[in-house]
Design a protein that fits this description.
alpha/beta; FAD/NAD(P)-binding domain; 3 domains; 8-stranded mixed beta sheet; 7-stranded mixed beta sheet; about 40% helix; globular
């Protein structure tokens, strides 16, 4: 069935349902997606009982999201401490050629997050709120009316909303409806959690630099509670399709051959797998007529570290403020909704745009470039500067400094050979 026939079929379904005047739900705000971004927005809106919210998401997946590394202060601010798996006072970045950058911090500013449990905590908090309604299904169509949006759901329900918050992650509900260009870069992760890991520091996190051998998105090793640990790798490419065969093969090589991870897990038992895909190129436009786009659906995971927890939680809080102003004033004009774009750009646009210009160079470079980054860039940062690099892509080398250090690196490498 071609696209035009399919869309024609959807709108015929709309018409038939309208004529029957059945299965129609009215709400102020519809939220598509129940990951951290959508739930964060719903939580904020739930605190104003005058605004009705319908949160739409497919039935919960049986897959396990990869263990997420994020910042302790963010998780504390959002009251998600019960989803913490472990906290870290150090971060090691190791390349395939065994160059290493190590930073030790005061306190434990980094942590491993149980993503699904964090979602469950917010869901349980807002589940009993009278102004919040959950619908477990998939949104499949969108239509503009004079004073509202009509969203067609897979179970033949029509949702009429004054405003839509799109938190649909890699499904990209809004831009797929408008046939706009999708993001061009995706990070695909595959890993396992293990029992009986040993001989490693319990409160230090590890990351493997991107490599041609194991994965262009790098890899991770996070000690968890007890003697458990999470090991995984990622591939960054231009397709939203999950490269499962390649990831599994590369992961097995990593587990067998990459030191020190292979040593840490030499007697470990696999527990469960972890998989996920996130866009890592931000959209140039994150609002449309009566629509606001947030989280992974907007490509807001940090493209330099592929960290999406903090952006998702922050997006949800901030977009809820814009939505509340629109609903309270019954004003859905560009002047109101564009505030979301402005809020995000003031905080993030410089860092994200810098990365957008250099992404092809970063994710598809030779292994020696990561050796250089570790030795001549990251090792020149203090602990606080390194955390700011992780969080904000801060303290970047100037082009002149980068050139000087690169020449020094190449000379020393040639002398060793």
């Amino acid at each position: 069935m071609n696209g035009s026939v399919f869309h024609g079929f959807l709108w015929l379904k709309f018409v038939l349902l309208e004529e029957m005047n059945k299965n129609i739900i009215h709400t102020d705000v519809a939220i598509i997606g129940s990951g951290l971004a959508g739930l964060s927005a719903a939580r904020q809106l739930s605190r104003n009982g005058d605004i009705s919210v319908v949160l739409v998401a497919p039935p919960a997946s049986t897959k396990n999201n990869p263990t997420r590394l994020t910042f302790k202060d963010t998780i504390s601010r959002h009251n998600l401490e019960d989803a913490i798996l472990n906290e870290y006072d150090a971060f090691h970045l190791i390349t395939v050629n065994n160059y290493r950058s190590t930073h030790h911090f005061v306190g434990k500013p980094l942590l491993a997050l149980d993503y699904l449990k964090a979602c469950q905590i917010i869901r349980l908090e807002i589940y009993s709120k009278p102004n919040i309604k959950f619908i477990s299904t998939k949104a499949i169509g969108l239509k503009y009316k004079a004073d509202y949006l009509e969203i067609l759901l897979q179970n033949s329900i029509i949702l009429r909303a004054k405003l839509l918050i799109d938190a649909s992650s890699k499904a990209h509900f809004t831009i797929s409806q408008f046939e706009n260009q999708l993001p061009s870069l995706y990070s695909h992760s595959y890993g396992l959690t293990f029992e009986n890991s040993r001989d490693h520091p319990l409160n230090e996190s590890f990351f493997m630099g991107a490599s041609q051998k194991y994965g262009s998105g790098g890899g991770w090793f996070y000690p968890l509670n007890g003697s458990r640990a999470s090991l995984g790798i990622a591939i960054v490419n231009h397709s939203p399709r999950f490269p499962g065969k390649e990831l599994k093969e590369n992961f097995q090589k990593l587990l067998e051959k990459f030191s020190p991870f292979s040593h840490f897990l030499r007697e470990a038992r696999a527990e469960k797998f972890e998989v996920g895909t996130i866009p890592i190129e931000h959209l140039s436009k994150i609002f449309y007529n009566r629509i606001l786009i947030i989280g992974d659906a907007a490509g807001h995971a940090t493209p330099w570290m592929c960290m999406g927890v903090e952006p998702a939680l922050t997006d949800g809080m901030e977009v809820a403020g814009v939505a509340r102003r629109a609903i309270d004033s019954d004003n859905y004009s560009r002047d109101i909704l564009s505030q979301w774009q402005k809020i995000w750009e003031v905080k993030n646009n410089i860092a994200y745009e810098k990365m957008k210009q250099s992404e092809p160079k970063l994710w598809f470079v030779k292994d020696e470039v990561w050796d250089f980054i570790v030795q001549y860039d990251l090792n020149n940062l203090g602990p606080d500067e390194f955390l700011e690099r992780m969080r904000y892509n801060a303290h970047l080398m100037s082009k002149f400094t980068s050139f000087q250090r690169w020449m020094r690196f190449k000379v020393k490498k040639s002398l060793r050979c």
